[in-house]
Amino acid sequence: MSYPQSREVIRGQDNRQAVYHAMPGLPTIKPYRTTASGDIVVVEADLDYGEEQFQTVFIFVCRDGKIATETAYWAKPFAAAQWRSAWVEKN
Predict the structure, then answer these.
(1) Which residue among 46, 48, 62, 64 is least packed, with the fewest CB closer than 10 Å?
(2) If you write DSSP's letter for every residue of 41-75 in order, what string do you get?
(3) Is 57 exposed, middle or buried (0-12, 13-18, 19+ CB in 10 A)?
(4) Is 17 helix (H, G, I), strand (E, B) or coil?
(5) In CATH, what number is assigned to the domain containing residue 61?
(6) Residues 69/1, Cβ–Cβ less than 8 Å
């Protein structure tokens, strides 16, 4: 598993599970879009840690029906810029 924003790589299932077990609190994850093609699956989701919320993208590369690699990106939501309002829709 890799976190490009912090430049971390977590190798192996044991280390991945250890990271999750050591987290002070796991977020509530609400996936809202999943796209798959061949061995690549992309999941977009909202993560709610209670005090903080993030939008995230998980990119999974699968081999033989199992996750071979996972890359995750997180971003905090931000307000839309007023100067773009004439050209965009808000959902």
Answers:
(1) 64
(2) EEEEEEEE-SS-EEEEEEEEEEETTEEEEEEEEEE
(3) middle
(4) helix
(5) 3.10.450.50
(6) yes
> What is the per-residue pLDDT across 19-56, written as a single tens digit (0 to 9) for each?
989 988 889 999 999 999 999 999 999 999 999 999 99
Residue 33 belongs to domain spanning:
2-77
**What six digits make up the tokens of 87?**
């050209």
Closest by Cα among 67, 54, 72, 59 to 9 = 72
Q: What pTM does this model have?
A: 0.82
Identity at 55, one-letter amino acid code? Q
Strand partners, 67: 62
